[in-house]
Amino acid sequence: MRRRDFIAESGLVAGAAVAALSRPGGPGWLRAKRSRLANVVLRGATVIDGTGRPRFAADVAVDGDRIAAVGRDLAAPGADQFDVRGLVLAPGFVDIHSHTDLGLLVNPNAESKIRQGVTTEIAGQDGSSIGPWTDRQFEGTRDRYRAQYGVELDFRDLGGFFRRLTRDAGSVNVASMVGAGTVRANVIGSDDRPATEAELGRMVALVREALGAGACGVSSGLEYIPGAFASLDELVALARPLHGTGLPYASHMRNEDDQLFAAIEEALNVGRMANVPVQISHLKAQGRRNWWKAEDALAMIEHARADGIDVTFDRYPYVAYSTGLNSLFPVWAREGGTDAFLGRLSDQATMAAIELEVRDKVAKLGSWDAVQITSTTADTVRWARGRKLGELAKERGVEPYELLLRVTREDRGRAGMVGFGMSEENTELILSHPLGMVCSDAGARATYGALSSGTPHPRAYGSFPRVLGHYSRDRGLFGLETAIRKFTSMPADKLRLSGRGRIVEGGFADLVAFDPDTVADNATFENPHQYPTGIPHVMVNGEWVILDGEHTGATPGRVLRPE
After folding, report:
1. What are the beta bridge partners of residue 40?
2. Are strands 511-514 and 537-540 parallel, antiparallel or unpaired?
3. 511-514 and 173-176: which strand pairing?
C-alpha cells in the first residue's frame, strides 16, 4: 500500500469508527436520568468532540460527573449557566506518556498539566512504575520523599498507590502501566544477565498482579538500567499477560538513533510474538546523521499495521528530548548500580572506552552545546543547572568531557539533561501522521513550591497548547479536530478508558474550554516555569479545576482502570 493511500484510508476508517461511537442513545442509566435537572450548562460552545468530525455549535449540560446532554438551546432550569461563546470546548486531554505519579502526593494540584487541559495522566512509562518494590527499594524511595518533600509513602506496588490516590486525590485522573524494568529490578536487580526460568515466572506473576490491580499496559525502557538487559524473549513473556485484554505493550525502544530500525523491529516483534497491541513511545530519529530515517521509520510502522499489528506511537512537540545525564554514558558502564558506575569512571581499564562512546554520542547530537543540564541533586554543582555543557565548559576554562565527569561524580549520576537531537521537519512529520498521538513525556510541575526547582524541559508546561497554537493554528500542520483527536479519543481508546476522550451524552465530564485564537505555550528551555495562555476553564469529573484561568483548589481526580 502506498503511503499516501494508507494515510487517506486510515483517516476514513478512523472517522467512521469514532462517528459510530459518538452517536446519541447511551446506556440505560442515562435514559433514566434525563428527567433530572443538569447542574451545569455550558452555553454557546464551539464543540470539537474528540472523534475527529467537524466542529459544531452546541450547549453542553453536565449532571454530576457526567455529560447529560449535547445540543442547541438546552432547557435546564435551575442549573448554573456558563457562557463559553468564542471558545472551543473539547474533551479533557489524555497524556498517554506522562511521568506524573508520586508528584501528586507532593502537590496534588498538578498545576502545569491541568493548566494545559490535561485531565488524565498515563504514568508507569519507560519501564518504570510505582512498584512492585522490594523492601530495600521501598525504604529508599520512602526515605527520599520523606526527607525531600515531607511526604510519607505507605505502599510498595500499584495497587497500594491506587488506594492512596483514591484517599488523597489530585486534580487530574491517573492511570498507570506496570514497568517491565521495575519488575526486573524487583526480581533480578541491576545485573546484566538473563532471567532464570524461576525468575521469569516470578516476573510474569508480578505483571499479572499489577494488571489485576488495574494497570493499563506494560511499558519497557530499553535504554535504561535494568531494562536494557532484557532479551526479546523476556519482553515477550512479560507482554503475554496482556493478550486478550486489548491493552498495549508500550516501549521506550532500545535505540532511537543509529539502530533505530532494529529497535522498531524489536518492538513490533514483541507485539507480534505476544499477540498484543504496541505503543511506540516518543518516536524520533535522533542525531543529525539519523534524521533521514524518520520517513522510513514511519513506513515500517505503516507496513506492520497493514500486516495486522495494532501499532501506534506518540511524540511530544519539541526537537529536544529529556532524560538523565548519565544516559550519555554506555549501558555497560552503568551496570550494577551507582557505585559500580562511578567506579568505572575512575578505572584505568574502562575510562578510555567510556570516553570514546560518550564523545560519539555527543557527536550524534552535533556538539556539547546540544546538552543542557536541567537539574542536579547536589548543591555543590547547582551552578550547572540550566546551562549548556559547551558554553559552561568554555566559561570555566575546562574541557567539556571533564566537566561532564565532574557533574556526574559529584551528583552521583542523578543530574538531568535536555538533548537537542531532532529536526523540526521530522517533528512535524511525526506529529502529523495519522497513527501518532501527542504526549508530554513529563511530570506535573508548578511555578511555586517543591515542584518549581531546576530548569525542566518546557514540555512539562507547554506540550498540548503548543500543538493547538503553534502547530495547528500557526503552522497549519493539521486542523484542531485532528489535533484534539490525537490527545483525546485516540489514547482513551488505546487504553480502554471507557467514557473518556469524547464529548458525548453519558461520557464523563472532563472538559477543556480554550480560545483557538490565543492558546499558546509560554515555557522555553531557558525559562520553562511558565504556564500557557488561552485555556481559561478546565473541568474534571464535573468539577471546575481551572475557572477563569485560576486553579480552584479542587481535587476531583480519580484512579482510572481499563474497562
Report:
1. 62, 80
2. antiparallel
3. unpaired
Give how far Cα 111 sits from Cα of 100, 197, 469, Å.
11, 45, 20
Q: What is d(CA 347, CA 138) in angstroms, rounded to the nearest whole number?
A: 31
Write out the three cell numbers for 272. Answer: 507480534
Query: Residues near 548 by Cβ (< 8 Å), separated by ≥ 6?
Result: 536, 537
Work out whether strand 416-420 and strand 371-375 pair parallel, antiparallel, or are unpaired: antiparallel
- 550: its cell numbers: 485560576
- Please tell me what DSSP assigns to residue 73: T
Tens digits of residue pLDDT in 250-264: 999 999 999 999 999
Question: 461-475: per-residue pLDDT in tens?
Answer: 999 999 999 999 999
Give the number of other CB atoms < 10 A from CB of residue 145. Answer: 16
- What 3-state class would DSSP assign to 531? coil
* Distance, CA of 314 to CA of 82 (rounded, Å): 34
d(CA 102, CA 168): 12
* Cα–Cα dist 47/45, whole Å: 6
DSSP letter assigned to residue 247: P
Q: Are 467 and 333 in contact (CB under 8 A)?
A: no
Gap between the Cα atoms of 246 and 275, Å rounded: 10
C-alpha cell belonging to residue 110: 498538578
What letter does residue 220 receive in the DSSP assignment? Answer: E
CATH number of 91-319+421-501: 3.20.20.140
pLDDT for 403-442, tens place per residue?
Answer: 999 999 999 999 999 999 999 999 999 999 999 999 999 9
Rounded Cα distance, 422 and 340, in Å: 32
Q: Report residue 38's pLDDT band, with 50, 70 and 90 as the boundaries.
A: confident
Instruction: State how far the Cα of 487 lies from the Cα of 484, in Å rounded to an integer.
Output: 5
CA dihedral 540, 20, 439, 313 (to 10 degrees): 150
Classify strands 56-63 and 66-71 as parallel, antiparallel or unpaired.
antiparallel
Helix (H) or strand (E) segment spanning residue 485? helix 480-486
Burial class of 379 by CB neighbour count within 10 A (0 to 12, 13 to 18, 19+): exposed
H-helix or E-strand spanning residue 269: helix 260-274
What are the boundaries of each domain within the chain?
91-319+421-501, 330-419
Number of Cβ atoms within 10 Å of the Cβ of 168: 12
In the block, residue with C-alpha cell 475527529: 52
Residue among 96, 121, 113, 116 nearest 175 (CA) = 121
In this structure, the number of other CB atoms found within 10 A of the CB of residue 212 comes to: 11
